[in-house]
Each structure stands twice: as C-alpha cells, then as structure tokens.
## 1
Amino acid sequence: MNLPADPALAALTRRHFFSRCGVGLGSIALASLMDRNALRAAEQGGATPPLAPRTTHFRPRAKNVIYLFMAGGPSQLELFDHKPRLNALNGQAIPDSYLQGKRFAFMDSSFKNRSTLLGSRRAFRQQGPSGMWVSELFPHTAGIAGEVTFIRTCATNVFNHAPAKLFMNTGSSQFGRPSLGAWLTYGIGSEADNLPGFVVLQSGPRGPRGGAVNWGSGFLPTTFQGVPLRAQGEPILNLTAPEGIDADRQRRTLDAVRDLNLQRLVDTGDPEIATRIAAYEMAYRMQTSAPEAMDLTGESRATLDLYGVDPAKPSFARNCLLARRLVERGVRFVQLYHTNWDSHGGPGETLESDFEKVCRDVDQAQAALVRDLKSRGLLEDTLVVWGGEFGRTPMGENREKTGRNHHIDAFTIWMAGGGVKAGAVVGETDELGFGPIQDRVHVHDLHATILHLLGLDHQRLTFRFQGRDFRLTDVHGELVPSILA
Amino acid sequence: MGAAAVAVGAPDYLREVKPVLTDHCIGCHGNEKSQNGLRLDTAVAALKGGERGPAVVPGDAGGSLLVQVIEGRHAQLERMPYKRSPLSTASIAAVRGWIDAGAPLPAAETPGHRVHWAFVPPERRTPPGPVEEGFSGGYPIDAWIGHRLKEAGLAPSPEADRATLIRRVSLDLTGLPPDPERIEAFVADPRPDAYERLVEELLGSPHHGERWARWWLDVARYADSNGYSADAPRSIWPWRDWVVRSLNADLPFDQFIVEQLAGDLLPGASLDQRIATGFHRNTQLNEEGGIDPEQFRIEGVIDRVGTTGTALLGLTIACAQCHDHKFDPIRQREYYQLFDFFNQQDEPTLEIPSSGPVQGPGGPAKAPAKPTTTLVLAERSAPRRTPVFIKGDFTRPGEEVGPGTPAVLPPRPFEGQGSRRPNRLDLARWIMDPRHPLAARVTVNRVWQQYFGRGLVETENDFGTQGSPPTHPELLDGLAVELVSPTAEGGFGYSLKRLHRRIVTSQTYRRASTVRPDLLERDPGNRLLARQNRIRLDAELIRDVALVASGAWDPALGGPPVHPPQPEGVMNLGQVRREWRTSLAGDRYRRGLYTYFWRATPHPALAVFDAPDAFSTCTRRNRSNTPLQALTLLNDAAFVDLADRLARRLQDGVPWGDPVAYGFQLCTGRRPKPGERERLQRLLDGERRTGSDTEAWRTVSRVLLNLDETITRE
C-alpha cells in the first residue's frame, strides 16, 4: 500500500498535502513517534480545526452569546407589558376587531370565556433610565433595567410549543434547519480549544419540547451542533474513561492510536486522518477541561450567594454561573433552557402559585449573571438574550385558576451586554397588549440583529443545501438599529 | 458550442452563433422570460432589440449592445450573462464576426429553445478514439472515466492490493468486514476470476439486503418513533424488513418503487405490497395537545411530495409550495397537482397475520410476542379537494386543482383509463417509466455516490438548473440507460444487483485510494477518479465492524428494533421520557441497522457519526470528524464491551500467527507492517508491566477499535 514507493516522491507527497491541507496536530510528544518527518511536516502546516476562529463580515460588538431560553412561553403581561386598560376591562369580551383572521392553540377544545379579557393582578413599577415597567415578580431583574434593552413587540409565526421553539431557534418550524448557535459557530468559529463551541444547559422539571433539534446543526456539519452538558454526573456523554482505565493508561492508549494513525496518514496522504488525530487530542483535553469548567468549588461564597446557587443541586442558578465560566473559557454560544413557563391555568400551569415559582427560579440568577459579567468586564463582549418561544394572550383561560393561551403577535424579550443599548425599550403594544402599534420585531429581525452584533451579515451567512443557499433568516429579516448601542 | 471564426468567411449564424445565444442568453431573453423586452431566440429578434434599442447593429460589432454587454464594457449594464461565467473568447469572436459581416439572417429560423440536460432522456453513447491500455475498458464506466483521464493527461492509480479490495467490496456490498480466513484465502486465490467469484458470493449474502436497506432507509426518513415533541413509539419495522427482503431478492427497482408508492392500489394487492406502502408512512406524527390535526396531516402530505421529488426526481419540488420555482420550470400550481396524489389517503395501521411474510430470508425471525402491526397507506373512496395554498399557507386556500405532473417532464401515458381520476399508481408508473429522464439517473447517481463518496452529479438531490452538472454526463446516462433496458438487450432490467456488479467489477472502483501528489495538483477534488476515495464508514457500519471483529455479532435478520447499551441520561433529553431497556443476549449484539431509532433522542453513537435524523429525506450523509466521535469509540459502554470481547478473543488463542497481528487484521483487514506490529507489541509489553495480562489485551483492543483505518473503507 505504500504508494508511491520512491522515497523522494513519498517525501514530496507529505510536504504537499501538509502544506495544502494545513493540518494542526497540537501538542504531540516527539518521543513516541515512529515517523518524525511526518510530525515536523504536520507542525509546519499550521492549525485549521473546523472550529477555529474565523473572520467576521464586519467588526463584531460581541464575541459570545448566553441565551436564556424560557421554555413554554412566559406571560409578558405578568412581567413586562403593563396594561392598565386591560386591567380595567377585566372580564369583558375582547372586541371582535382583534380576533378576525387569528388562529390560536387549542382551537378545537372550546373552553369557557375564551374571548374574555384577563387583567393582570401584578403590581408594576418603572425602572432604570428607560422607565421600563417591570412587575413585582422580577425584583432582581428590575435592578438591572439600566443594562437592558427590552423589546416588547417580538412576533413569531407559530403557536404550538415544539414548532415555535424550533422557529425561535432556527427561523423555521420545519425540522432539519441549523439553530442560531450552530450558525454562529459555523460563522465565527470558537475560541475554546478544549471545549465545544456551542454548549446547552437545562433546568426545570423536564427537557424542552422538541429536544435536541432545538440546538441541532441541521444541514451544517455536526461539528456545529450544541453539546448538552449535563447537570449531574458526567457533563458530556462518554467523557469519563471506562472503569479500570486510569489517566495514564488512557494516555498510553491515545498515544498508540495517534502513532498508528500518523503512520497511516503518511502511508495514505489523507488529511482526514490528521483531523482525526487532532480530534482525539481535543477529546483527551475535554476529559479534563469539561469537568473543570463544571466544578464550582473555586467560586467564592459571595458569587454563589449572588446567584443563589446551591452547588450540590442542579438549578437554573447553577447553570447561569456555569454559563459565565464557559464563556470565560472561550465557548462561543451557551444556551440555557428553563422549563416550565406554560401557563394555561390548569394544574401546575397557573398564573398564580406556579408562575410565581418559575419566576423565583430565574429572577435572582439572571440578574446576577448580568451583574457578574459586568463586574468581571465580560459583559461588553457577551450578549445575553432572554425570552421564550412566544407570549400569552390578553384573554384569559379560566380553568381552576387563571391562565393565558399562547400568543404570537407581541411578546417581550430582553437583551443585555455586547453592543446592546444599556437601558432602553423598543416597541409598543396596543392598550390591551394584543399586537404591536410601533416597531414590530419579528423573530427573523431578532436573528438578523443578533448575527449583526456578532459581526455577521445575515444575508451573507449562507450554506448551500438542496440546491440553494440557505440563511438563518430565510428570505426575511431586517436589522433593528434601535437595539444597538 | 460555436467554434472560433475560421479564416475564410463570416461565422455561420445557425451553426456558430445561435448555439451560443441559446446556451447562455435565452434563459432570460427568450419566449418564457424576456428581460427588458429583449429576446435573443431568433436573429430577427436580436436585430429588433428591446427597451434599450437594437441589440445588434449590422456591420458594427463594437457598437452593438449585445457585444458590449458580453464583453463587459457597457457603462451602465452588468457584464452578461448576469452573474455567470463570461462567454469564451471563441464564442465572443463568433458573435462579433457574424455582426461585422452584416449580421446576415438565416432563410428560415425557428426560435432557439434550450432544454436543461436533466429533462432530456438519457442516451447511450460510446467514447471516441481507440481503446488504450489503462485508459479504457468496460462500458460505460472504465471507458468514460478513462476517456476523461486521458484528455486530462492523468494516469490512473493501480489496482488496490487484494487485502484492501476484499475489505472494500465486502463493506460496500454487505456492510461487514471479511474474516482474516476469508481474506487470506482471497489473497492466495490464483484463479483469474477470484474477484468476480467474491463479488457473486457477497451479492448472494442475506446481509447484502441489510447494508443497502440502510441506503434506502435514509431516503425514506425511517425511524421507530413518531417525532415532534411527544415522540411516541411506533411499529413500522415490518416495512424495514420488507426493504431488506426485496433488495436481497433483487426485486426490480421499478417494482420496488411502484409498490412503495402505491402497492395498495395494485390489482389484488398482496400483504407484502401493502406493507411496502409504509414508505410514505415514515412521516412524523404530531400528538401535542392543542394542535390543529388538519395542519399536521397537511405537513405529512407536504413531506411526501418533497420526499418523492427529491428521492426519485432529484428536483427541489418543495420550493414550489409557496411560489413558482425560482429556477426550475415548476409552477406552484403544478406542485399542488402533485400534492393532490398524496392528499387522497387514509393512514391505517395494518395488523400482520402471524403466518405473514415477516421474517428474514436465510435466518430465523425474532418472534415478537404481541401481534405485529405496521403503518400503511390506503386510498379514500371519496377524494379530498386540493386547493393551491396561497404562499404555501394552508389557511389560505386558493384555486382548486386536480392530480397532474409538471409540464416540463414527459406527459403521463395514462392509457385507457377513460374518465377515471389518476391516482398514486399512475403517478408511480409515470415516475418509473423507462422513458422518464430523471428517476434512473437520480438512482444510479446515488448508488455511485455510495461507492465513491460523491455522485457523478455532486448535488445528488438537485438535478435542476441550480444543481451541479455531471462530471461525466455520458457515463451517468450510460448507467441510467443500462438500468432501465431489458436484460434481453444487455441492460440491467431494473436489477440493482446488476448495477452493483457493474460498478464493483470496474477498474475504476478497484483502484488504490492513496493520495498522489500529482493528483493533488491537477485534480484536488479527485473529480476524474484517477484513484478511489477513502470513505469513513457510516454510523451503523462502525458498530458492525466492531461487532464482527470482537466476535460478538448476532447475525439474526429482521424483527423488532433492539436496544444495545447507551449512556445513561440520553432518554431525559426529550420532552417525554421514553424507556430504554437494554437488550440482553443476542439482541445486545445486533447490527446497527436494528438499533431502536427515537427521533427526539437518537442513540448517541449513531447521531455522533452522522446517522440522519429521520425528520426529512436524507440523500447524502454528512461525514464529520469530531472529538465526540473519539469519546464515543474510546469510552462508550457498548464499544468498551466489544473491546473486552475482542481482548478475550485474542487472549484465548488465534488460528495462526501472533494475536497482535491477528487482531490488527480483524479490525483493518490487513496484516500490520513491521513498524505497526512493533508499536502494538511495545504497548502490550508496557501494559503487562503495569497491570494484568487481561488489562493489557484490553488496552490493545481499544487501540485497534479506535484506529482511523478500522472505521474507514480504504
């Protein structure tokens, strides 16, 4: 199989593909090599692993994203969109003019008083330089209003949980499209050389609807898909060496695999083998780096208290702190999912005690994350995004307690940090909070703006698949300049 | 193409100029579209011009608008053809020459009409020139590959050595690596037809159907769960077993397709033919609370139209759901005419009698305890009405349409049906009509892609105008014509096995895959196939190779999907926590094909090696190369278990040679070179100094199962 047999030609082969394919082999110990020439050639090649940082379209305002995904669709009317008129009309029928041509979830099941307006019982106060209204359920979040741009007029297309989550993440309710995190790591690479570029953390009673497709890479290479780090046990599947294999033996195993692969690389000239050697080295480093990133023993008592973390227990708070640690270690995109914000009014889904509980789950920690990032100088490079897959209707669903249905026309999300205005409000809804009357921000616009903040033009970030160039924003999306600092 | 003007006389318009305009201009300036009022499909139209005046001024090429824009020197207009490569110097010279000679008009001219290559039925052609050693050979593969290599002045690589060949062809035809005993026998086989005998043996193996079933399951978006958020389990594995049986029996490909699209409509449909319609029941099913069921029934129909278009026509028909296709001649109305064929079904569950055909050939079936069911299609008695959905939105029904096929493709030969409404069976027969320009091309291209890592048309799912043209158009057409031609005329008669045989016995397929410096320079993408390509194995085959090498493999065929070990916590990732009760005994060691596939929470060892997600049709897999793959092979419980089994196998004594070399051959198919053997021996000796003999062999086995070569088809 040694082709070409002539040694001079073989040397030429090696030089040739190493210089062309630019393979990086990292920290390979010279001592155990069978073929030192190959190593030298490899090292001269420079490093271009698939996740290496890439040039952006223009100067980025942020380098990393922490996306706090409020799974289930939080009620903007209980948190941010203060509507005294809605409160005044509590119990009255919504004017037909609002409902014409609209479709809602659970259309078939006729529950009582679907069209009856439900006022919010929550007290609101204006906060920060923008005078943004924040409800009593978010006391800590109210305290960071000066860092945040609130968007009250976010709109989406789909009103069922799984397709809507998919839409918020991929810009499409069809499966098979890459998620925002995948597009970003594809577009700008990662700065972590011993952790994945896109990491997912989850908290709450169950996983988000739709599961892994929410952080999938779709038609992009799988290198770019989100890697879920688990709250307990091994943070990455198969991260720990099997029982009976200590660190030394694992290293000796890897050394032998590397040496034999290197020999094969020399014999075949296939640069894929160089990539595989590099992947094994990264895997080895991850065995140390991932548990280290997840280990909170080095965090001060003050930091733990700021977030409200009990290090022994999985929680949204713990994940917020982990998100900061991951960003510090160069991870490009950290997405946190917290369930369950679904508030139809049935058992476990009331706007009363259940909603209060889920607000308590997140309030302190999300505010602490922004404060902590700021105090460490990380906020200017890190974009924090908060929001669900849709909002809730101004009409109530009165089951045993009160609730609201899914609503796609106007709901609130907020952003803070890298390139975003500190203390601003974008958009205004009508007096019932049903639809936007000023500055509607569609999911596609949001995506275009997030990509822009990371230095990418949403119209130029494309991938050719099934005969056409696909974008995160499909054929839509406009930058929202009023969000930018 | 227009040739350069010869010295004597002006270029002839019909022979030299018109073909240039037809190939490059009339897409936008013809009878279908005439941008800015300009048409270039006749000389008279060119002289008349459009909104900007005449395109051609007789006798003055330099002053003619046409010449200014194709040369890219017009002050306001972009260089034409717009956003495409400029015309060749020779073509421009022909246009100039004709105009300078006074732009003489032909006596009688029919408007130029350009037809995209893929819409023209394929033809059999033989390469020109004499047959030469090394460059030509069997028709059509070696003849056309050799012809192009010769044109490019590239020498083909020699044939791979025999150990490489037997592992390559075994993995490609059965998905299983050969035993060292079989390898040694083949290497030593002096008969001139040793390779051909091997190919026959493999094509006859019951595992051939398993290997190629996976090829088809990707296209069919097969999974064992319903998808969407709840992702409930489903039973449709009898359809998967039908695919395995049909491929083993070499069911002609036209029948294979007709039965899957419309088996229920065949006269006196057999149980098997009804099971076959499970193909289009592999769509997802949404059971989330609060949904509009009609919305998701329509999503299913949309998926069936898109899958049929991609898998059999190689067209991005799905693009026409919301608007007329931007690039290909498919109108939105025509999309809904196709949609109508798939809008007329109920979606029942079929109970299979216990005496039914649900068992694998050549092996005992795994008998399920409960009555076996599978999902099928059944035609409704009263047809649904199909409207065009405005902008693809099902809440905005527009004009009503009936069943029909795109006008650009051959008309349907629906003879003698009188006033009967055309149905799926008519559609299926139309698609598989031997005169149809697409289905055979698309199929042979995807088979080719399995063997060489890339199709002759690289955009295997887009044969439309935005797809890439074939690298070897005559070869693609040659294989397509062979596929559909009757065996009496020397064709394959729709036999896939004949197609496989033709490809794997070609010299092109058998060449060494080693990278050559001269090829890196001249043909870096190996488009001309002077050598084979190294291909990382598919996810399921990576498992299969480890199963066989370790000796743990249970070769049983068919039956319900199984649950090999997987890391804890995987099933927590979905919305509803599903059960994964790890299989015991033989079912723990079944081929990757049989691993239970949950759409929301696929087995990580499959997902990490790019098994498709089964949400939509997959006509080509990704081949990523990531650290998570390394962690899987190193640490995943299933692979550690197999490494332990391999270690025991080597420790217990091997039939010949030393266990290190034998283990290497079990995994890679070849004997190690001295340096490789020595490196492994050094590892073994070192491990023996720090631990037990068993631990030392376990380490060596893990190394062997992690080698790049082990998971690669060389």
## 2
Amino acid sequence: MTTVTDTHDDHHDHGPAKGLMRWVTTTNHKDIGTLYLLFALVMFMIGGAMAMVIRLELFQPGMQFVDPGFFNQMTTVHALVMIFGGVMPAFVGLANWMLPIMIGGPDMALPRMNNWSFWILPFAFAMLLGTFFMDGGAPAGGWTIYPPLVLQGGNGFPFMIFAIHMMGISSVMGAINVIVTILNMRAPGMTLMKMPLFVWTWFITAYLLIAVMPVLAGAVTMLLTDKFFDTTFFNAAGGGDPVLFQHIFWFFGHPEVYILILPAFGVVSEIIPTFARKPLFGYSSMVYATSSIAFLSFIVWAHHMFTVGMPLQGELFFMYATMLIAVPTGVKVFNWISTMWKGSMTFETPMLFAIGFVIMFTIGGFSGLMLAIAPADFQYHDTYFVVAHFHYVLVTGAIYSIMAAAYYWLPKWTGNMYNETHGQWHFWISTVSVNVLFFPQHFLGLAGMPRRIPDYAVQFAEFNMWSSIGGFVFGLSQVFFCYIVYKTIKGGEKATDQVWEGATGLEWTLPSPPPYHSFTEAPEIK
Amino acid sequence: MSSENAYYIPHDAKWPIVGSVGLTLLLGGFASQLNGSTMASNVMIVGFLVIVYMMFGWFGEVIDESESGTYKEVEGASFRMGMVWFIFSEVMFFAVFFGALYYIRIFSVPWLAGEGVGASTNEYLWSSFEAVWPTNGPGDVGGEYEKMGAWGLPAINTLLLLTSGVTCTWAHWGLVANKRKQLIIGLALTVTLGFIFVGLQALEYSHGYHELNLTLGTGVYGSTFYMLTGFHGFHVTVGAIMLTVMLVRSIKGHFTPENHFAFEAAAWYWHFVDVVWLGLFIFVYWL
C-alpha cells in the first residue's frame, strides 16, 4: 500500500482523484482550501438566514413572527455559526490556499491532519444545528454561554458543548498545521521578514488559536460537569463563582476576536499595495504591531465584564490595557493610508472592499474605545451600542476583508475573472445597506435599547425599522455575491498569471489556476 | 531538486473521515446518554471502537511509511514542531483548571467570606461562612468530608513519576547509543511505573469516595481535586499507552539512533505529564 502511494508521488503531474471521494480523502492544500471556503459560504448563508429572522422580528415593536425562546435561539446560534462556521473557516480556507504558495512551499506541512481539520467541521455543525430539533430547542443563553442561564437549557445543551469541543479540535489542528508550515516549508531565501504580511498575520493568529482554544475547551468542560456531574465551579453555594466562567470565557474570547481580525489585517495589507501600486508602507512596523496586538489580547479580557462587580483596581487595569491596543492598531491604519498616499490607485472590487474595511473597521475601533472607558461602559453594557460595535468590526471588518480576498484571489483560484460590474454593484449595495443596518444601532444603544430582546419600547421603532430594511438589503446582496462566485467558477474572461497590474508575490508567478501541485521545486526568492 | 528529495505529500487519506465519524458517534452518544437515553451507551461504544480502529489504521500507515524510509529530516522537523505545539495546547488546557483553582482560592472563597467586594454577600447570605481551604462552600455541598493528605499515596506517586522520567531518559540514551537492551529495559520500567501510578491513583479515588466522602460533588474542593487529578490521570494513561507502543516497536527493532521521532514525541509527552503532576502535588495536595 505504502509503495503504491510512493510511486504515485514521484509523478509531478499527479492530479486529483476522481469523483466525490476526491474531496473526502484529499490531502491537497488547494482542495482543502476550497472545501473550507465553500463550507464557510454555506455557514455564512445559514447564519445570515438567522440574522434575517432576528431583523424580521425586530422590524416593528411587539411580538411579530417568532416566540421569544426561538428568538433567543436565533441570536445565540447566529453568533456561533458566524464565528466558528463562517469567519474562522473562511480564513483557514484562505490560509490553506495561499500560505504554501506565498512561501514557495509544496503543500501544508501535515497534509493528512489538514484533511481531518476540515472534515471535523461538517460533523460539528451538524451536531450544533441538530439541537434545533431537540427537546428544548437550540441553546438560547447567548453565544457567551454564561452559567447559570445556559445550564437551564434543554437537550441541546450537551450537544452544543461537544460541538464546541469538536470545533476546538479542528481549530487547534489547523493552527498547528499553519505554524509548522510557516516554520518548516518556506522556500530557501524566504526569511521571516520577507514573508508576505498575510503569512505573518496568520502565523500570529495560529499561535493565538493554539493558546486559547484549549481554554474554551476547559471552560465548556466545566459547564458540562457542573450540569451533569455535580461539580460547583460556577456555583457560589459550593464555593465557586459564576463570574469565574466569565473570566475564563473572555480569556479565550478576547484573543478569539483578534483571531477573527488579524488575518483580515493580512488580507488588506496584501490588497492595498497592489492597487496603490506602491509597496506596503512600514512592513516591519506592521509585523511588530500585529505581535503587540496579540500580546495585549491576553491582558484585556475583563473589559467585557466591567459591570460584573470587579474590584476597582481590576476595572482600572483592564481599562488602560484595553486603550493601549489603540496604539498598534493606529499604526496599522496609518500604514494602510500611507501606502495609498500618492499611489496611482485604481478601484477594482477587491480594493473597494479593502478601503471599505479600513474606514468602517476604524469606526468599529473607535466605538470600541468608547466601550473601553469603564465608567462609560456602565451605560453601554449589553445595549445595541455593543451590537453595533462588534458588527462594524466583524461584518465591515472581518467579512469585508474575506470578500476582498475572494475577489482578489478568485481569478487566481478559478482562472476566470469575475464580472467587474457585478463586483462593483455588490460592493456599493452592501456598503450602503450595511451602514443603514448597523449605524442606527449605535443610537438605539445609546438611547438604552438592550441587546438580545425580541420586543422593545416604541421609541426605538424607527431606527429598528431602518436597521431591518438595511439588513434585508444586505442579506440579498450576499445572495448576489454567491451568484457572482458561481458565475466566476463556471466561466468568464480568462485571467492572466499576473491578474492585477500591481500585484507582487509568488502566487502571481504561477498560472491561473495554478497546477494541482504548485511548487514541487522551490522557487527562487529575490 | 530531484523528486526523491521532494517533501513527502501523502495522498488519499481515508482515516480522517473515519475519525470524524467515530468522534461524532462517541460524543453524540455521550450527549444522548447525558440526556437520559438508554440506547446511547451502545452508540458511544461503537464510536470509541471506530476511533481505536482509526488510530490503529492511521498510526500504522505512518509507521509503515517511516520504516520504509519515506520520511527524511524535513518531514521529521514538521512532526517535531507539530508535537511541540500540540503539547503547548495541552499546557493551556491544564492552565485553565489551575487558573480556576487559583481564582477560587484567592478570590471567590475569601469574597464569599466577606472580604473586599463580598462584604454584603457574606453578611446577608452566609454570615457564618469563613474562608478556609479546602472548602465545600457556604452551602456545605456534598456534606462532611475529609481532605486528601499529601504525604501518603500522592507522595509515593510523585516518586514513581519522577523515577519514570529518569528511566525514560535512560531509555533514550540507550536508543541514541544504539544499545537496544537498555532501550527496551528502560521503556519497560517507564511503562510499568506509569501504570502503577494510574493504579495507585484509582486506589486513592476509591479511598476518597468510600472513606473520606470526598467526591466530585464535594463543593469546589471536590470539583477542582477530581477534575485536575482526573484529567492528569487520563493524560498519564494516554502517555503510558504511547510508551507501550514504543516498547512494542523497540522490541520489533524499529527506531535508529538518527530516526526515532515517535519515541521522542512520547517521551516529551511523558515529561509534560510529569511536570503537570508536580504542579498538582504542590497546589492540589500540599499547599
């Protein structure tokens, strides 16, 4: 058996196996990248459908379409699906496709494990989404799964816990693969400080993933034993503390939000130089800023819990440490803008999404600074202001960068250009609607509308209606995005190897689409 | 670069999907069991067997490849780095439970007893509660119990594990010096010590449950005690099984002084569980 595999391996033109089993047993980084990306797109649509239910219910005050319990299931599972099923797999898909090519390597370092990292996910999400059909429905205590509320769930509870365990296993294996690939598979001459920034940001992201996914695993394990095995970690009667869960959860959760955004920084740092036709301004400061953000992410977690009753010293420490993050993030935004300064810019769709990212992510960053002020946070906590904040950084931040990456690299992946007119329409419809969707939520929050409620006082009616209309348009424009992707895979104008006039980097030296095995011989690095 | 020097990329990996099915059956079955289903334990057993089958198949394939000389230094480096980062993830997993223990001992128990921010909680809810360790909380959860002493079985276990660390390294020296006999004896000793440790741990649990009334439900003391030592015991069992596989492979004549990644990985893992135990002995049993 082994020898057969070996002989196959000696042929450089070894193509993919035929039929469905190709995708199940593949060890090829491009195949696995494609699987991840398509999986993420499907999850994005499922999570998006849940968001539509939420916006539908909130279109007017009063109970409209769903009962409050189901509404809570929607908000909870929407978040879990979007974070663990949408954004994270999309970035892992981009990493799988691009990292080996960008560093001039033959494939990911541990190809079989790479396959398993992906193939755990459909099972994990089948388990999570299966909870909708169980007694008591899906988990409804919010994605932060705070005890004691989450422990009062129905039969779905243990399934959710194990689904999270499986996602964690998948993420840790994927992250190990990324780190080992970057450390061990670089072409000769590709020193660390020559790596494209997308590689750098993923390197640091992978480190964060390995550091905090086990923390989440530990946290949910304690929830499980508290519910079923009589432990009292989060029960004050036994000497435990529900607030302990919040500390553990956010020790995972804050690095997790940087896991969702650092690869986005990498994507944008690839795209802006291409369309500004200038090298990235301040490459090494970008690397150091990313590392600083990763370090700071471990010491700011309790800013999610300012109102929980921490000692004053804690409030102060976490407030100042959080504000410190604005410094390296400011460096990044400054560098992106300086890259565009006096560049000869063109505005193809990837560039539009990248610029949209810079502007709107910065808006989300500023509202984050407002939330970081502990005394002010007592007003904002658990209001729609928070919802607006994290949707600006996640939707117009992380997801915009994924859109940008999709348009940027689709011609490379498929060999076909997408329809530029369609792309421009997609961008402008999305950008107008997403601001109609989320910007009014700032005002709602400041006026006191709490998050995670199916009904609200009448004074919030108008902004909610605006928000819902924006939501529906934004949702539809993502269906349009699926259509654009489908059309591009099916055909279109043939892409050149270089694709974009100003593109630099190893991926543009390969044909579009690249051969099944990209660099069987290490490329020369200048 | 000639194709013989190219990085080895395996094809047609069929084991991952088997593993996913096994994992889903095991965990899905467990979840149903917790929800009170009576059939679910069978699903769990099937899932467990599928995972065992997957591990035999997957590791077997890799061992065959290794023995037929498929892997060179560069693949070996990937394996080593992979193992190091895997152990780092395990460190973080244990860090959560140690962190919970410290938080409970330093913050939550003193707060319940009225220190700092807990003043009114104590006065109005549990005014008679005092902060001592160990504790089963102001609700006296689980009833009367006794503390697990440090200087009986746990001290013996510490000695056993530390000795097994030495024998493991001695076996490694034998492997590097191409002394097969030393390798086999060293590994056999390590494995024996490891399984004795697990046996004594089981004895200690039985002592705790039957004589001390110390259970998982004995407040936070019981929770932290059994979860920390339990996960550690599980890891020792896994490590001992890994080392047993290394022992069988050594007897079969696998490994050379240059090429023995699997042995090293198992040894690193063993030293890792060793270090975790030292933390447990100090913070769970002793202090």
